[in-house]
Structure formats: C-alpha cells, structure tokens
Amino acid sequence: MSYNWKEIFRESAPLLALMGFIGVAGGFFLEGIEDELLEFTVLLFLIPIINDVGGNLGAVLGARLCSALHTGKIPSDFKDKEFQENVWVMMGLGLFVFFIFGLGMGIVSFLPFIELTFTQIFTIVIGAGFITTFLISLITALVSLWSFKKGLDPDNIVIPVETTLCDFIGVVTLAMMVILVVR
Amino acid sequence: MDRKRVVKETLPMLFLCVLAGTLAGTVLTFMEEVLENITGLIIIVPAIIDMRGNISSALGSRLGSAFHLGLLHQGLTSKVGKENVKGSLALSFFTSALFPFFLLLISLFLPFQIGLNDLGIIFLISVFTGVTAGFMLIILTFLIVGASMKFNIDPDNVSGPLLTTAGDVLTLAVMFGYATLFWGVLF
Fold first, then answer.
1. ipTM of this complex prediction, to 2 decimal places
2. pTM of the prediction?
C-alpha cells in the first residue's frame, strides 16, 4: 500500500461530487418540508444530533474495518466472526448512546415551549436512533467489503457514502417516528 | 478484537459530539442575518459542513490504516503524510468550487430564483471557506492522529467523531467570518 495524492483525488473526487450533489438536493428537500419541521421545535434539535451520532458510529466502524482489511487482520468475508463482532459492538454502542440521549432529550419536554411529552420524545429518539444505528452499521459493513473487493481504497469511499446516507436516513426515520407517535 | 477498548475510547467521543452539535446549532443562530441576506446560502450550508467532515474523516481513516500498516513509523511528515495532505487539499478546492454550480443546476428545476450576485458571493464564500477550513482540519487531523499514536489510542476509534464534530463548529465559524466579510465589502 502506497499513497499518491493523484490517486486519492481520482478515487475520491467523483464520489464526493456525487455526495455533494445529494447533499445540496437534500438541502432543498429540507427547505420544502420546513413548515412541518417548524411545527415541532424539538425536531430541529434532534435532526443534527441523530445525523451526527449515526454518521460517527459509521465513521468509527468504517475506519476500523478499513484498517483491519488493509492489514489482513480480518478477511473480506461477511461471515467472518471478527468482522461481525466489529459490527455488533458498534450497534451496541449506538443503542446505548441513543438510549441515554432519549432520556436526556425527554427531559427537554419539561420546557414550556416544547409541545411533546417525555414518553413521546423518548419513543421518537429511541425508534429513530435504533433504526438509524442498525441501517448505518449494515451499510458501512457492506460498502467496506464491496469497495475493498473492487480493489478501491475503502478509506476513500466508506465515510462519504455512509455519512450522506445517514443524513437522509436520520431525517426520514425521525419524520416517520413523529408521524407514528404524534398523529 | 478488544471490545472494552472500543467502548472506552469511542463512547466519550460520541457524547462529546452530541454536546458540540448543540454548540454548532448555536453558531448557526448567530448567522441568521447573513443567511437571510444571501438567498440560497442556507441550502448549501449543510452540504459544505458535511463535505469538510467527509474529506477530513477520510483523511483520518487513511492515516489510521497507514498507522496500522506500520507506514507511519517515520512520522506523520513523511511522504505518506504529504501525499495525503495534497490529496485532501485538492479535494477541498474541487468540491467547494462545485457547490455553487449544483445550487444553480437544482434551482433551475424549482420555482426558486437565485440572482447572479448571490450566486457569485456564494461561490466566493464556498471556495474560501472550503480551502481555509479544509486546511485547518488537515492540521487538526494530524494533531489527533499524532496524539492518538503518542497516548496509545487506536486512531480509528476517535478520529472520525472528533473531526466531524470539530469540523462542524470550525467550518460554521469560518463561513460566518467570510460571509460577513464579503457581504460587507461587496454590498
């Protein structure tokens, strides 16, 4: 393995451009549903945090898998025990963080301008957080394996794909949970 | 695989990023006036922030792999480090220059008008913010990976969360600076 800046650029630039385009399009989408978002102030707090935590879980899992694949510590096989353990531990971490975060955000419900109850906020955070954690861990694992098998450097691919998808998944699962819990 | 180590090293970082996420939200509220003045800027703010996070976390991830491969034994300023820096800088410039065009392209399909003046100022803000914040984040990535190596922490467990978190706050602050500057000078 050797590093060359042109190769890094060549592998990353098209992907980052695509992810950037999806990001800008996502911005328009958010602008479009702004009224619905503003109806529940608490959503504005939740969106960035769920996207960040989900994205970071994927980033840590991705970085770990990439190193392990590069060094040959784990084979590029989804059935490998060590590979799966990495995924399970990250899912466990996600569940724990979202549980604590759900309790913490639940307390926000006691503020006068928040229109949801403790149980409602807790359920929304837990539901959206758990689904996001599960999907992101799975996507990260699959993309790491796929890109490594394709002969690309997964370090260049996994994090951009995973964070962009996480932003989308985070907003959709939150919106879904709000509709389920509130309406 | 050392489960305890992953939990011990990653968990505090995840909680830290929840706190810093709130801080980033606060910086954004300061920017409200500039954001209202420049039509279209708010739409690419999340994309610009995410892109900084993507470029620096990918750099962190590559350096993490290089570390585990034993390629960093000559230190971070060796050829491996330099090539990685050049790659990240080139990507920062390239992606920041693209955003205004994406904005223009997508706005063509929507009942949403962005004037040429606004688009020009967004181009300046995007490129200057991208390169400045990109450069600062590259230095930060090296500091984080260097410190992890020194304190015997696996860089893979900490660099992602630390970089995206610091990246959010840093990028917003730099963007706020340039937006205010360009708005003040040009209008």
1. 0.85
2. 0.86
